[in-house]
Structures are given as C-alpha cells and as structure tokens.
Predict the 3D structure of the following.
Amino acid sequence: MRELILAAVALVLQLAVFYCTGSLLMHVFKGKKDASLELIVGYLAYYAVFEVLAVPMTLALVPLSVLTIVWAVIMVLVVVCAAALLHRTWADRLKRIGGVWRNHSWWIVLLLAVIGLQILIVCALQDYAQDAAYYVGTVSTSVYTDTLGRFDPFTGAALTKFQARYILSAFPMSNAVWCKLLGLPALIQCKIVMACINVLAANLVMYQIGKKLFHGGRKQADLMVGFVCLLNLFSGTIYTQGEFLLTRAYEGKSMLANIAIPAAFFLALCLWQMWNEDEAVISGKTRQISEKKHLLPVRERNVWCMLFAAGASAICFSGSAVIFPVAVSAGVLPLILAKRKWNRLIPYALCMLPGILHAGVYLCASMKIITLWAS
C-alpha cells in the first residue's frame, strides 16, 4: 500500500512539474495557451535542462544527493514562479472546463479510454530484457550508492571508465533523483510511474499532430489518436515504435521514438502552416508578405526553441539520439528549400547542434581520443 501511495504521489508531482514548466515557458515566450501543448513543452524542456545539468555533474563525480538537492531547488522555484504568475489563468481555465465537452463531445471518451487502455497495458506487461535491467539497475545502484551511474548495473562492480553509450544520456538519473526525493523503489518509478507519464506524453504529441493535420479539429484529432492506438496494438514486431511504447515505455529509445521524433514532426508541421499563412494570393500570383524587422516572428521563434529543446531532450533519453538530426532534417530542410527561406538555415543549424555535439563526443570516446573516467 505504501508503494502504491508513493507511486500516485510521484505521478502527480512529476506531471505538475512538467505542466508548470510548460505553462511558465509559454507565458514568458507569449506562446499559445493550450494545456496539452504546455505539458509537452514542459516535458521536453525538463529533460533538456536536466541533461545540461546532470551530465557535467556525473563526469565531475558529484554525488546523487547533491544533484537531488540542486534539482529539487530548481523545480520548487519553477513551480512557485508558475503559480505566482499563472494562478489566475489556471483558475479561468478550470471555470471553462465545460468547454472541453463542447469541443470534443463523446470523442473525449474515446481519447481517455485509449490512453487508459495503453496505461493498463504498460503497467501489466513485464519485460526482462537487458535494456530493462539497465534502466532499472542503473537507478537502483545509483540510489543505493549515492553516485551518478558509477556502478555497473548488471554486476554492481565499480566502474573505472564510463560507457559513452550510456552516460551521456541522463534520463536514468532523473528517475534516481525522484527515487531519492520520495523514497520510491526504482522498479516502481521506472516501470510504473515513468511508463504512465511517457504513454500520456506520447498520446498528447499524437493529439497535437492530429489537430495540426486537421486544421484544429479536436474531434478528428481524438479519432486519430484512437487509430494510432490500433496500429500500435497490432504492431507484431519489436522494430516498431508502437511495440516499444507498449512493452518498453520506460526506456529511452521508446521516449525517443514516441515523443521526441514525433514532436519534431509536429513542429515541422507548425513551420509549414506558418509559412503557408505568410503567403498572400493576389491576382492569381503568390507573393511573400514582408517580414517584421526582427529576425523571426514570435510564433516561429517559439517553434524553433521547442525544436531545440526536443533535440536536447532526445539526447537525455537515449544515445540513439544520434539519429535525431536526421529526423529534423527530414522534416525541416525540405520546407526551407521549397519556401526558399535561406535565413532559416541558421535556426535549423542550431537545432542540429545538440545531436551533432553528442555524436562528436560519443565518437571521440569510442575511438579513445578522450576517456570518461568514473573514478
């Protein structure tokens, strides 16, 4: 019973931190007011910032307890600032909760049922593969030894050198921080709490993609989430993102395939829509509306910032994020070439930077040009 209560508390607290982070960022950058989008933005920003903080502390051999204190202070500050600035906005949003039914009708029932079904599946299924042992074992050994990934999760032996394949992705250390804060067993945090959150985040990203594809149609987006769920349920091979979502939702590769890369696709759709809206048809000819004096319009700047955060969070999720620049290029580069927006090559290159830096450090470590000492 104690573990169930702790799991519920951890789930609520982590979702609250993600939501407050996203709400605060959207407020600061004057972004769109959308609760589901704010949760996604907060999720990506959380792991992007955590990666920047945790990896240097890991390489500096800082104890887990120190990282836990620093990160707890940051989270408290974010939540307090968000509450102070946005409590009226949240109150107004609660008053308009009835509008959710008007916008979705019975399709909201389908949406909730689909997400609930997937959550039940990921909680009920058990996966004992090597990757599963790594993600849980790294967290448990880090909590038990008060270190940041300095012990082999398979044998418990102290490491002399970090494995670049794993240590440059700090997602397991985030789980360790929450276990340290709440006294939650690593198995429950990883396989229950985080799996539920990841399923919710993945479905919300798909919902946002549906809204973008169907020009803001919420009912159509609800139905699209249902169809995607059916595709995932009938994924009969381990080589699909749906199989990873339903059997290995707590692993970094699943987060990369189901959240970070789909988020990049969604943001590419946002750019495509914005650039189409910037074109005006006059006498059967298309002309470009003159842009404002600043480099990027506010809405477009926010999209590029979110894309950068998605790239940084992808590194936090998994070493397989070396493929993320390819995903960004596939989504964004054809748009830049088609619309001839050559000045957008600069923000595009900046969004590629996290993945390129990660790949560079990984290759240097693999080729023994640099050594990542663990002791």
Q: What stands out?
A: The chain is about 75% helix and 0% strand. The first strand starts at residue 279 and ends at 282. The radius of gyration is 21 Å.
